[in-house]
Amino acid sequence: MKLKALFLSTMIFSMNLFSLEQQSEKLRILVYNTHGLPEIFISDNPKKRFPVIGKKTQDFSISLLQEDYSHHEELLSGLAKKSLAIRGGLGGRLICPFCTGSGLTSVFNLPKNWTVDVENQTYDTCSGWLRGENDCFSYKGFQIIKITLPSNKRFFIVNTHLDAGKRDSDRAARKKQLEHIISTIKLRTTTEALIISGDLNLNSKNPEDVKLLENFKEELKLTDSFTGHKISKKWTILDYILYKQGEELEFKVISVGEDESFVTEEGPLSDHPALIIEVSI
Predict the structure, then answer these.
(1) If residue 12 lies in a helix (H) or strand (E), which one and from where to where?
(2) 20 to 30 Å CA-CA from 66: which of 33, 197, 214, 242?
(3) Which CATH number fits domain 24-280: 3.40.50.150, 3.30.1300.10, 3.40.50.720, 3.60.10.10?
(4) From residue 152, how far is each of 113, 120, 148, 213, 248 by CA, in Å?
């Protein structure tokens, strides 16, 4: 009887370990270009929009925002008290006093026992001072986010905003910026799960931009989470959520789409769609 009891106890213990190993965590992730240029360059009311955007981040585990240039305090006013907001690089104001920072902000509403480390990098190239989309007036770059779970397993997220514009020089800048991401990621990680997202300014209907996107995906073995899913035709598709499985952690995509609640009575909260992905880890 004692041997039988010991056998049953061992089996139950093993099953519990297996159950713990198989447990998954769910994440809701928002990717959103907030249209946060200085008021002089836009016709709507960012001081009204940004607190609303901040409040909406409370519904997500992670919010990866772009163009948070000039209304950061208004954004922060809408965040939950427990939220952790980490802003991207602000650039060298002494070198270029009229320039803005990267415009990147990542907001986290994660369990307390998860660890978040963020590294900000600035691109080495840009296209456009007084022509094109004037990208050189912002210190665009990317955030490398390392998230460590209580099990000490980890995954990486990249939040970025690439050079805009349709000229050959704009596309050449985007190519170099993608190469910057590739080389940095390959130095930081090889086997961990990875999400790369943001406003890549790669037009889904432009063959040259699509070629850049496909080469980028191939280099890092990325999958486009929106393949087979349609976004409203009112948007030009420039924003992406790409991912790669890891050896220790895998992403199971539960759902992807556009959160169409990002509006007020005055209209959309931005000139980009609010992309969302829900995954289990």
Answers:
(1) helix 2-22
(2) 214
(3) 3.60.10.10
(4) 11, 23, 6, 32, 10
Burial letters 136-169, b for 16+ CB under 10 A, else e: bbbbbbbbbbbbebeeeebbbbbbbbbbbbeeee
- Structural domain spans, the chain: 24-280
Q: Which two tokens stand for residue 176?
A: 């170099």
Return the percentage of the chain with pLDDT > 90, whole number.
74
- Taken in order 7, 9, 10, 16, the sign of the CA dihedral is positive
Total-model pTM: 0.90
The pLDDT tens digits of the residues spanning 44-69 come to: 889 999 999 999 999 999 999 999 99
Q: Report whether 200 contacts 187 (CB < 8 A).
A: no
CB contact burial 57-92 (16+ within 10 A = b; e otherwise): beebbbbbbbbbbbbbebbbebbeeebebbbbbebe
Separation CA 125–CA 136 (nearest Å): 8
Q: Give the relative orientation of helices 207-220 and 168-188 as an angle to the nearest 10 degrees.
A: 10
- Please indicate whether residue 9 or residue 39 has the higher confidence score (pLDDT): 39
Alpha helices per DSSP H over 35-123: 46-56, 72-77
Q: Are 29 and 278 in contact (CB under 8 A)?
A: yes
Instruction: With beta carbons less than 8 A apart as the criterion, state whether 69 and 138 touch.
Output: yes
Let me know: does 199 contact 238? Beta carbons within 8 Å.
Answer: yes
